[in-house]
UniProtKB/TrEMBL annotation:
It is found in: Membrane. It holds the Pfam family Tetraspanin. It comes from Mytilus galloprovincialis (Mediterranean mussel). The keyword DNA-binding does not apply. Keywords: Membrane, Transmembrane, Transmembrane helix. This is Tetraspanin-18. InterPro entries: Tetraspanin/Peripherin (IPR018499), Tetraspanin_EC2_sf (IPR008952). Residues 313-328 have a biased composition (Basic and acidic residues). GO terms for cellular component: plasma membrane.
């Protein structure tokens, strides 16, 4: 059992050190992206160029801030990173230094996390239609801030990127853009006339096809392909690696809970083994502990047996009827008032 405890502690320490390092990395990335805009712009200039080309952007990105585009993502990185770091510290110190309260807190947090993950998966499959509605609503609300292909704000750039990458239009179709009050539909044609766009340019197979802007159909555009279903199809196509990764994470969490329980329970068992004998009975009662302390304070210790002091030890012994020294009083811890009695 001692080997099992040592193995559990080593595994806990190693895995939680990894958790702490992952947490630190996520904290650094999230903080730099959120508050280090100048630094990010310096190192991501080539990525910006690829992004602009991907969404066929023809506007001005002088005031573009990547933190605005990834605001919620960076906040998620910071929160998740802090969580990983705290969990790693709790598990590492608790296992390395055998701090039982920290191990108990570690087990409680991981157990809650495991139960929450299982409950989330159960709700996802049991009420998928409700879950779809819950996700579509905020997605549709963002379309109210859409400004078109030339919009420089983070929401517009993000929506243009999604529609370009997944060949889709709106959340459920082009009709969703009727709620886009900031989208400038008017444009000047080469014939000198002003027309209104029927769909955003990024919903067209060719974003410069003005005929598609005015007269879209399923051949020259993605007008009926919603981005929500397109992203959902992509997730289904990559379901196996996602399920494998999720199952692996869940298995690691369960294993960590088991190892932490083993380390925690064994620490308690060792203490009980020290205070109790092989039959589970206390080795010394409170009176015996008081006697040892009294002898220590007097600078004198009497002989001990089974960790118990001899009561009334005075270097005298009684003799039985055959004249032999009788030490049973000392060996069996017989009270002093019976020690001189012959048997």
């Amino acid at each position: 059992m001692g080997a099992c405890k040592s193995c559990s502690r080593v595994i806990l320490v190693l895995i939680n050190i990894l958790f702490s390092l992952i947490g630190i990395a996520l904290l650094i990335v999230g903080s730099v992206v959120r508050w280090g805009t100048d630094l990010m712009n310096q190192y991501l200039s080539n990525l910006y160029a690829d992004f602009i080309e991907a969404i066929k952007f023809d506007g001005d990105l002088t005031d573009f801030n990547i933190a605005d585009l990834l605001g919620d993502v960076t906040l998620s990185f910071i929160i998740i990173g802090a969580f990983f770091f705290i969990i790693g510290i709790l598990g590492c110190i608790g296992a390395c230094c055998t701090v039982r309260p920290m191990l108990i807190l570690y087990v409680v947090i991981l157990s809650i996390l495991v139960l929450a993950e299982v409950a989330f998966v159960a709700v996802l499959f049991a009420a998928q239609s409700k879950f779809d509605e819950w996700l579509k609503k905020p997605f549709q609300n963002t379309l109210e801030e859409y400004k078109g292909i030339d919009g420089p704000d983070a929401v517009t750039l993000g929506l243009n990127f999604i529609m370009t990458q997944y060949d889709c239009c709106g959340v459920e179709g082009y009709g969703d853009f009727n709620a886009s009050k900031l989208w400038k539909r008017e444009f000047n044609s080469s014939d000198g006339n002003t027309y209104n766009k029927s769909i955003p340019a990024v919903c067209c197979a060719n974003v410069t096809d003005k005929d598609c802007w005015l007269h879209p159909n399923t051949n020259n555009s993605y007008m009926d392909t919603g981005c929500y279903d397109a992203i959902k199809d992509w997730l289904y196509d990559n379901m196996e690696p996602l399920i494998g990764t999720s199952a692996g994470v869940l298995a690691i969490e369960i294993i960590l809970v088991i190892f932490a329980c083993v380390a925690c329970s064994k620490e308690r068992s060792n203490k009980e083994d020290y205070e109790n004998d092989s039959y589970g009975k206390p080795v010394m009662d409170d009176r015996s502990y008081d006697a040892i302390r009294a002898y220590d304070n007097q600078g004198y210790r009497g002989p001990h047996h089974n960790r118990q002091p001899y009561n009334g030890y005075d270097d005298r012994g009684s003799y039985d009827k055959r004249g032999q020294r009788d030490n049973r009083g000392y060996q069996n811890d017989v009270p002093s008032r019976r020690r001189d009695k012959h048997y």
